[in-house]
Design a protein that fits this description.
By secondary structure, the chain is of the alpha+beta class. It has eight helices and five strands; from the N terminus they run H-H-H-H-H-E-E-H-H-H-E-E-E. Strand 4 (170-181) and strand 5 form a beta hairpin.
Length: 210
């Protein structure tokens, strides 16, 4: 079903759904220990919310997926953005190749059963031995075809722009305070506070091999 949806041109939309899924989110949280990294976060639920607020996942008109991650640590921001791509690739392959993989696993299991019987070929009747040998040859061919089918059905991701460590911080909020006093309208004080973070961006395009 997933492959049919992908073939219809909705690849980017499917990728966004995978990237925002709980499984991918939890994998990112665990990999970077975000429960302890984020302040005022005591459990997985709050960590998910914080990660969601620090992550922007959008699609472009050309069908690419853009992932932007904001974090106080520029190195972690870049690593997290790239980790999203790794998790997407992992989940995408798992979801898209299930049928072909199941077929290959089944054939390999039957092949082992026949190999076990052929290892004791002296103890079975000649006719049955001949049948098992023919079955073995057929299963070998089918296994090779199943492997080819599995490889062909495996989707691939093309990373257009890999996330790199951002050089400059971005302002997330600005607070200005000033006090004006005196007949000369002299400025007594102005205070500026910046809460800054770093944004790492990665763009991904997905292809399906037919």
């Amino acid at each position: 079903m997933l492959r049919d949806i992908m073939d219809s041109g909705s690849i980017a939309g499917i990728y966004v759904e995978i990237l925002t899924s709980r499984e991918v989110t939890d994998a990112i949280i665990e990999k970077f220990d975000l429960i302890h990294v984020y302040e005022d976060v005591e459990n997985l639920t709050k960590a998910r919310r914080r990660l969601a607020s620090n992550t922007a996942i959008n699609t472009t008109d050309e069908g690419a997926v853009k992932i932007a991650v904001t974090d106080l640590d520029p190195n972690r921001a870049a690593a997290m953005a790239n980790a999203y791509v790794e998790e997407l690739d992992k989940q995408n392959k798992r979801l898209s190749t299930g049928e072909a993989t199941s077929k290959r696993i089944f054939l390999e299991g039957r092949l082992k059963e026949v190999e076990s019987k052929l290892s004791q070929i002296e103890s079975i009747p000649a006719h049955e031995a001949q049948v098992q040998e023919m079955l073995y040859e057929m299963l070998v061919r089918e296994c090779e075809l199943a492997k080819i089918e599995e490889a062909k059905s495996m989707p691939t991701l093309q990373v257009l722009d890999e996330a790199v460590v951002p050089e400059l911080p971005v302002a997330r909020g600005t607070v200005r305070r000033g006090v004006m006093a005196g007949v000369m309208a002299m400025v007594l004080g102005m205070f500026l506070a910046f809460a800054r973070g770093y944004v790492a961006v990665v763009r991904v395009r997905g292809d399906v091999t037919s």
